[in-house]
Design goal:
The complex is a heterodimer of chains A (580) and B (438). With 580 residues, chain A is α+β, with helices and mostly antiparallel strands. Chain A contains 14 helices and 25 strands. Chain B is built from 12 helices and 21 strands. Classes of the chains: A alpha+beta (580), B alpha/beta (438).
Chain lengths: 580, 438
Amino acid sequence: MKTKGIVTGIVSNLVTVKVDGPVAENEICYIDLQGVKMMAEVIKVNGDSASVQVFESTRGLRGGDSVEFEGRMLEVTLGPGLLSSVYDGLQNNLATMTEVFLQRGEYTDPLDHGKKWDFQPIAHPGDTVVAADWLGEVKEGWLPHKIMVPFSFKGSFTIKSIVPAGEYTIDDCIAVLVNEDKEEVKVTMTQRWPVKVAVKGYREKPRPNRIMETGVRVIDTMNPIAEGGTGFIPGPFGCGKTVLQHAIAKQGDADVIVMAACGERANEVVEIFTEFPELIDPHTGRHLMERTTIICNTSNMPVAAREASVYTAMTICEYYRAMGLKCLLLADSTSRWAQALREMSNRMEELPGADAFPVDLSAIISNFYARAGMVVLNNGQTGAVTFIGTVSPAGGNLKEPVTESTKKAARCFYALEQNRADQKRYPAVGPLESYSKYLDYPEIRSFLEETVEKEWVEKVLTAKNLIRRGKEAAEQINILGDDGVPMSYHVNFWKSELVDFVILQQDAFDAIDALCPMERQRFMLDLVLSICEKDYDFEDFEKCREFFKNLINELRQMNYSAYESEQFWAYNETVKKMIA
Amino acid sequence: MNKAYQRVYTKLEGITKATVSLRAKGVSNDELAVVDGRLAQVVRTKGDMVTLQIFSGTEGIPTNAEVAFLGEPPTLKVSEQLSGRFFDAYGHPIDGGPEVEGEERQIGGPSVNPYKRRQPSQLIPTGIAGIDLNNTLVSGQKIPFFADPDQPYNQVMADVAIRADVDKIILGGMGLSNDDYLYFRGRFEAAGALDKIICFINTTENPPVERLLVPDMALTAAEYFAVDKNEKVLVLLTDMTLYADALSIVSNRMDQIPSKDSMPGSLYSDLAKIYEKAVQLPTEGSITIIAVTTLNDGDITHAIPDNTGYITEGQLFLRADSDTGKVIIDPFRSLSRLKQLVQGKKTREDHSQVMNASVRLYADAQNAKTKLENGFDLSDYDHRCLAYAKDYARELLAIDVNISIIEMLDTAWKLFAKYFSPAETGIKQALIDKYWVK
């Protein structure tokens, strides 16, 4: 028997409902607006009055309108066909909607029920299985998509029967399981899971022990992110957040990419729809769209669904992680999600924290970041969810609640700087403020030593130190004038410019420079450091500037040439001669 | 505004400067009401207590005022008859003409499904090189002018509107001074563009809260022409800072907790709802939005320009140039995020390289200027940069320039050859070979 209620109060999308039975926190209900059913979520209960946030515009809603509670939380549907789809924050398939304008109460099915998938069983009748164990697989694009015992199944089960290899739809029964009480349950290729609950069903969550390549030097070389790690990119508008995120999405070494466009510009999402189907994944040679799911809740779509969108995206990542895949979640921007929380808290007249954000903002953010991570599955295989969020700090000031809360939760910090962007030094990631805590992990250090080269981390720290010394020298030169400082100040300054121009800066729009594999990053850092190791002396600072400017130009040409091409070695030769 | 069924109440329980509250039953959210002859909208219901926002302010409203609910949110009647007309914030004619006949549509309607959008790809030429050359506009884009109140942003906007190759121009004026309103009207008349102009005007003489209706009115009309008629529509909104101020007045009167700069916490969503109406539809129809956000002494960290910058696809900065005495479009702080969709694709191949080189050389001139101010000696290159900067500002950056994009590119090449060697421009050799002025 479903709990029912009637609307008693409305402020924008916050509606209070008088209920006639039990309701749960985060339970989903539908409000009936003259036949249009609008989805809403319970966010507070007080006696028989529930406050619900409506995922649609509440225009025209009246006191006395009826509400029906569903007895479940906000869920996503999981199954083959999630990849290459474009969903809104509530996982409605935007591609199958017919109207140009989004219609209130129009909910479309996330998966195609008619499509047949080529199923191969993995488990056998008689096997004992628990939630998240693999029963079989289908090919989703080129990815092996595991069909699992639904995450919601409690206790252990015996497989009674499993269908033979063949073509099935997601609704066909592919296995019959028997639980400890000898009851039979049927399993299909699809299952549902509440988005705000982390998917468990793995053996353990060890510390990340390898890095995820992005092909972006300022990340991989200077501040690498671990597979299963977390990072965030704060920056004022116009500093290249979106370009950097798109670069990571295009080049990240992951099997599955989920992009959550959370409260951002619709035209940026259109760019992904338009370009990704044309672009090729550098790791597999397949179309990028085949490994990508887009969750799109742009800034003009309902605010409450913006909050849901990041959870929907995370749940989809966790689902693929349970198949032993490497997933990358990119959320742009988590500030918009925090603002959605603020709007709601404000309407509920809660006592505000800093900048009117809810007081539990920090806890909400760290809980969310904690869902990322590398896991060891029940069968011993590993899977990972790497999460990178962007933050849009108000006025570009990093001392604001969302940035500060995120800094506590995320392990990598990529600070985009206005003055670097103004000088067109892209990606505008500040070399001194940014950090990766993974460089301190012994596991990661030994991984880098083994896969890149010996003493790699020391080299990275040396490069950072060159930048720091260069900055100090630049400050002195600015105060004392070019002639007022010893030559070594100029040399130090230009060494840091060399690291900046050749390693830190990268042209995201150049076909070759955009993607720099780790091996090439190793070569370039070694080369740059071997140049910087030497001592130089010049007659005057003009000569020093000229020498380094020419050197930088040759090295940049190298970045623009195909790795180990004739041209590349020619530039390398020139550089060698210049420093000889 | 008489409807067959109207509920009428005569007892107000509370009055603030912008809102009244009363007990009423069966009231729907967002619906309009008339309070003591003034238009109002439902903004909150709690039990049978209803709060109404009075657009023209509550001065003189007594507690026994008559309140009649109209049963509908604000609407606009749309048809071809809108063309060439001037309306107030409620959509009533202020040009002495008859009321418009047409289909009645609710304003502030739903958003376009992002999946149904198309990537913007059509150039909007304005004749102003600071825009066309450096920050090219694309149909379906949304972009504001960030300007101090003393700068001539309304003139530039009128220039852009008149020169842009669009089917309809819709002006949403919020807190426009009566003089500026007459200026726009005069400019449109003089240009013979009246038949494609539609204006919704709230002047400083009108109550501030009325402004809240203006963008939705303008965009409802825009959607009619873009979606129903497949037309290219340009929407001008001036001044969005005054719109945001009106938002903060209402939220303040409703006892909402303010966030940064005493703006409502929902400012980002409120502004995004307006700007995201800019769209390139799968048909030929499009809505382009050019807005004005006035700044306090150039401060872009204030909540209004800051939130705007995160929503819009770039911004155009106006700046008074002391070297030439002209107002220029600042090439450093201005940005069009969509420019690469048309530069070199819809314009000549050398466009983006010429743009980058000319801005980079202008930046070198700024450095030379700093050196000069700090008392350091200038090199020959510095002197050439400074001379170039003066010509560049006068012949290309100034807002009074009106030439084609080809002429802009040729002018830039002419200046390069006058002051620099090909290598100093850093332009690709192939383009140098083809375009360098010998």
